[in-house]
Amino acid sequence: MKFKIDKSKCAGCGACLQACPYGAIKMGKDGKAFIDQSKCKKCGTCKEICPFNAIEKYQINEKSI
Ligand code: SF4
Ligand code: SF4
């Protein structure tokens, strides 16, 4: 399982950067947030906080990471 930001929905508000307890979310040069998967602890806080519903949870096969 992993969390992913849909760039087409992200408004670049920065709320998730503040909300992530692990500092795993960064703002890209394109003004869209992205998740550093190596730091993400899958807590789900960002998904809860995003006002634009841009963060989604994906169920993925461990081997495909
Ligand atoms: S909270 Fe949502 S809209 Fe705001 S920067 Fe994060 S992903 Fe983008
Ligand atoms: S799931 Fe938690 S640790 Fe991962 S990016 Fe979102 S707030 Fe940060």
Features:
single chain; alpha+beta; Alpha-Beta Plaits; two-stranded antiparallel ribbon; 2 helices; 22% strand; binds iron/sulfur cluster
Describe the structure.
The protein has helices spanning 15-19, 45-49, and strands at 2-5, 25-27, 33-35, 55-58. It has one domain (2-64): Alpha-Beta Plaits (2-Layer Sandwich), CATH 3.30.70.20. The model has no long low-confidence stretch (mean pLDDT 94). The protein has 65 residues and is α+β, with helices and mostly antiparallel strands. The chain binds iron/sulfur cluster (2 copies). The site of one iron/sulfur cluster (SF4) has 13 residues, from α1. The site of one iron/sulfur cluster has 13 residues, from α1.
Q: Topology of this protein?
A:
Blueprint: E1 2-5, H1 15-19, E2 25-27, E3 33-35, H2 45-49, E4 55-58
Antiparallel strand pairs: 1-4, 2-3
State the strand order across the main sheet: 1-4
Question: Mean of residue pLDDT?
Answer: 94
Provide the domain count. Answer: 1
N-to-C CA distance: 9 Å
CATH architecture: 2-Layer Sandwich
Tally of DSSP helical segments: 2
Low-confidence stretches: none
**Helix fraction by DSSP (H/I, runs of at least 4):** 10-25%
Q: Name every ligand kind in the structure.
A: iron/sulfur cluster
The name CATH uses for the topology is: Alpha-Beta Plaits
- Rg, rounded, reads 11 Å
Largest sheet: 2 strands, antiparallel
How many distinct beta strands?
4
- What is the H/E string? EHEEHE
> By helix and strand content, what is the structural category?
alpha+beta
Which geometry do the CA atoms define? globular
Query: What's the CATH class label?
Result: Alpha Beta
Q: In percent, how much strand structure appears in the residues?
A: 15-25%
GO molecular function: iron-sulfur cluster binding; metal ion binding
Pfam families: Fer4_21 (PF14697)
InterPro entries: 4Fe4S_Fe-S-bd (IPR017896), 4Fe4S_Fe_S_CS (IPR017900)
Domain 4Fe-4S ferredoxin-type: 1-30, 31-60
